[in-house]
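---------- Forwarded message ----------

FYI, see the Taurine dioxygenase record below. Original note from H. follows.
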Amino acid sequence: MDTVAVGPVGMRVSGLSLVGIDPGTVASLQALLSEHGVLVLPDQDIDDGTFVAFLQAFGQLTFSTGETPVPGCADLNLISNVGRAVPPKSTFHVDTSYVSRPPAYTALRAVQIPRSGGQTLFSNQYRAYDTLPDEVKDRLRGRTITHVVTGLDLGPDDETSAEHPIFREHPVSGRTSLYLTTAARCRSISGMGEDETRETVQYLLEHSTREENLYRHAWSPGDVVMWDNGCVLHRADHEGVVGDRVMHRGMVADYPQRIAA
C-alpha cells in the first residue's frame, strides 16, 4: 500500500483492498491512525458485509443507542439527508464521548454521493494541543471536562455522562491531544464555574478548528474514511449540498495494546 499526507491531519492509503484484510495490515493501519488521525481508503467496491468484516478486524464493534441503524445491518448507523426538508446540523465533535470508554475508531462508507457539497472536516487535536499557549496549558493541566449526551433517547441503563481529561494521552501513540467535543456536550470543566467553562470551551474549539488545522474531505464513489476519535474532531458540512448524501457508519469499541515505538 502507498501513503501520502492529505493535509495537517490524515493520510491517503492507496493500493489496498479491504476484502479479507490480514492482521499485519490491520496493525499497520492502527499505527497510521494513532499518528495521523484519519485514513482515506479510496476505490473500495464493497458492500456492508465486507465493511463490517473490515471493522471487526480492528476489534469489537459498538453502536450508540438512539442512532438510526442501517436496515438489515444493525452494526451500522445510517447517515442520510434523503427526504429532509431542512439540512442536518453538524458541529465539530467526538463520537459518543459521554461514555466512560468512547469508541476508538469511526469509519464511513460512501453509499451515495451528492452532486456537490457534503464534505467531512477533520481537525488535528495533537497539533491543537501542541500549539496552545503555555499559559493556557498551565491553567488547564490536570483538569477534566464532563461530557453529557444531547439529542438522543437513551434507556435507563445507558451512560449519559462521563469525565475525561482535557489533555488526553493517546493509548496507542502516547502523544497528548486536546480532547473535547461540541460545546453543547461539554457541561463543565473541573474547578470552573458555568461562565468560565463556556468561554474556555469556546476558545478551545475555535483554536482547534482554525483553517490551518483542518482537512476537508471531498467524497468520491468508493471512498471509505476511518478516523481515530482520540486525536481528531470531525463534522459534516451540510451547507450547499445538492443531491442525496448517504453514508453508512461503523465504530470500533476499543484500541489495541500500545504499539511499541
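H. also flagged this: Residues 122 and 234 are 4 Å apart (CA to CA).
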